[in-house]
Each structure stands twice: as structure tokens, then as C-alpha cells.
Amino acid sequence: MERTAVLERFDVNNVRKDFPILTRTVNGKPLVYLDNGATTQKPRQVIDAIAHYYTQLNSNVHRGVHHLSQLATDAFEVTRHKLKPFINAVHEHEIVLTKGTTESINLVATCYGKAFLHAGDEIIISTMEHHSNIVPWQIVCEERGAVLKVVPINEAGELDMAAYRSMLSDRTKMVAITYVSNALGTVNPVKEIIDLAHASGAAVLVDAAQAIQHLPIDVQALDVDFLVFSGHKMYGPTGIGILYGKEKWLNAMPPYQGGGEMIKEVTFAKTTYNELPFKYEAGTPNIEAGICLAHAIDYIQEIGLDQIARHEHELLEYATRRLLEIPGLRIIGTAKEKSSVVSFLLDGVHPYDVGVILDKLGVAVRTGHHCTQPLMDRYGIPGTVRASIAVYNTTEDIDALIAGVERAAAMLR
Ligand SMILES: Cc1ncc(COP(=O)(O)O)c(C=O)c1O
Asked: Are 323 and 342 in contact (CB under 8 A)?
């Protein structure tokens, strides 16, 4: 009760106490972790749950009649149970547990492709997609003779919606778009994108890898066909991902992989497939991560996504304002709607060199192309320095970033 009251007031210093790693030093300096877009740190509630799983529950799921197997199965299914209201799915069986966003997108591209794509059909993605929302579609286009179309962006990093509208036609079978850009921070107008796609008869996959931990998402309100995200970017363990798919699509598509769990009956003559969601969950899943993701969902809900979004937005605005005070610093991605990411370049300095200096000062940022090479090509740059913000970051973290960038500017220019 006391803890809930504290979180209701949102005291970032209390939130930080939940993340043991934030007390460590790096290169003799307190860790300032601003690489949350790559992966977030884990609260002790998740870390404790991992230890609890291995000390009390470890067993394979969905198969055994013995006590531990039933406990592990129940705990694993609790996660699916919690995910349903978290994204407001109609059915629990619309939630498939995968390895991560990448696997979820590959699953949809492969299975949707087999069921519905023919030569001459078109798939629309955007310039700001992560490689994991480009390459699976390229592969399936090659296999099925379909055509990949790419929505351009403006200099600020916003989608050219007029171009998008003009690309849609009855040939469009799928629109696969990121909700929040991992490299620019742009929040895309996904509801409008979905409505326009549906008006043309196309299905929509939304990559929510950088949205689910920052914004409330309601799959029914969005009317999205597929939504994908990763546990490790939302304070949960690595090795677990989510694929939400409307029941009608998951029923209509063939299985992704064959093996145990995804079958109803196997004979050498013919195999019948399991019901949803198990049809898409071949083999032993990442049980530990599946179970412990539930604790990350609880954690986010205890604080509240509205509260998280407000806190992160204040930090984003503060970071943007302070960074722009540094002479010769250019922010890449200046969309009106942004979330939690600020990417920048120092004139004449390679982003990698800035990253190395920041690391010496204990500040963890990401440098490079952020798995968005076509986006970097669009801007004609090799990459950026990216600071990405999470619920436990503070204005002091941003001050440390600014001091580090100023130091890098003084040393490197
Ligand atoms: C927008 C976006 N999509 C997809 C991915 C891939 O996620 P994962 O590596 O967890 O599969 C990432 C990871 O950085 C991302 O930021």
C-alpha cells in the first residue's frame, strides 16, 4: 500500500531503487543509462521472479501432469492472461508468445505471405523502419513475386501521408509500419494509417517495439491486425516477444514452424494442428522469460503508462533544449510527435567517437545506424548518437549527457 502511494506521487528516486544495476559504476563513474531503446534495465521484481522460477518452478510447460509442470504452465499462462487487458485484445488466444519483435514480424511475413500474397501484390513499409520490419518483407516479396513500396519522410522525420495515400490501391495487401521510430523518436499516426489501409482492403502490422513501454495501446481501438513487441524493451527478460493477431488472421494462416506443442495429432499420413495460440508456438518456449514478463507488466501498470509518458516527455523536452544549446549540434528527428528518443550529431565528429567519450564518463548511449541503414541513407549520414529515455532516468542523467557531449565537442573539434 505504501509502495503504491509512493508510485502514485511518482518519485523517480523511489523508482530507481527498484533497479539494482543503477547503483553500479562504469569506468569509475555512476552509471547513466540512456540506451533504453536497445534494452531497458530490469526491476528487482523481475530479477526476483527469475530466481524464484529456477528455485521453485523449473519444469517444462503444457506437457506434464506433475506438480511442477502444472505450476510452470499456470505461471506461463498468467502472462498471456495479463497481456490481454494490457493491449485490450478480444481473446487471450490472439496473443502468441515468440522470441521477440523480430521473430513476430518474420512469423507474420512468412505465414501471411504463404496464405495471401501473390505475384504483383504490394506491401507498404516506411523509410524509418527497423531492419526487422524491412528484411522479412523483402524475403517474402522475393518468394511470392510481390512488390515492396516505401513511404518517404520529410526532413523532420514525419511520414509523408499524402505519398502514403497515393501508394494505397487494391494491390496493397499489407502495411507494416512502426508506431515509434527507434532512431528518430517519431510517433506515427497509426490509427489514420490503419483506417486508410483498411479502406483499401489491406491488413496492417504495427511494430510497437518502441511504443509499448511508453504509450497505452488498445488493439481494438486501433483495429490493428497484427501488433508486435519485445519483453526486454519493457523492463522484462530477453528472449520473449509478443505477436498479437486478430483471430481471423491467425486462423487463416498456416503454422510458422512444425514440432511439439503446435500439433493436435501426428501420423505419417497427416498432421492436424493445435488450436490458437499453440498452433504458432512450436517447441519449448523461453519459459523463464515468459513467466517473468508478467512481473514487468505488473511493474509498468503499477506506475501507470500515463505517468511514465509524462515523466519521459519532460526529460525528452529538457534533453532537446539543452542539447540544442551546444554549438554545432544537430538533432536528427524533429517531428511534432516524439517519444523518448533524441538522436543527434556533432558537426564534423563521428558519432562513434562521441559514444566512446561518453562511455568513459559512465554515460551509456547508442551510436551507429540503429538497424535503420536506409533511414541513415535518407539523411546522408553514417549514423547518430542516440539517447533513449526510460522511467528511471532523471534530469541529472540528462545533465551528465550534456556535460559529456560538451566535453566530446571540446576534445574532438
Ligand atoms: C522499432 C524496432 N523494431 C524492431 C526491433 C527488434 O526488436 P528485437 O531485437 O527485440 O527483436 C527493435 C529493436 O531495437 C526496434 O527498435
From this structure: yes
